[in-house]
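Lecture 7 notes: from sequence to structure.

We start with a single chain of 149 residues. Read the sequence below before looking at the structure.
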Amino acid sequence: MKTRFKYVRIQGRELAVNTKYAKGIFSMCMKLIQDNVMEQEDAELYLEIDKWFSEILPYPPQCMRRENVVCFFKTENTEMMMKMIKPAMWLLDKYERPFFVVYTNTPGEIVYEDDYQVVVKAGFDPIYEEMQPSWTPEDKLKELEQTSD
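Now the structure, written as tokens:
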């Protein structure tokens, strides 16, 4: 299934203030360090992961300028990156921060691209709602009967 998709992003449920897009794994882990939630040994592990990515991946100019953008890994070149990011995913699990591994072919308007990643504009204001409780046709009939009384 994953090979059908061109891009992947690991993101949480919390929205970033600047992008209004789900926070990525790097900012989620860094926030745990900044808030003194992460134990020292775990923080050191994450900082080593972050250092590896900083040395391997080019730093997109849009990110340097703190533009309203979101990054996705290219799946064609992510085998090593996914291996290296797994401990960060483990840290999110350990500190009970839910996340999703999101695969897509349409990440948005690409404003930067290199061998490993794309950067897309995040200039939209999504509206997120909690899932509605499931219901059956019988439930709907009961609801209609109650409103007609």
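Strands lie at 7-15, 22-24, 69-74, 99-104, 110-113, 117-121. Keep this in mind for problem set 3.
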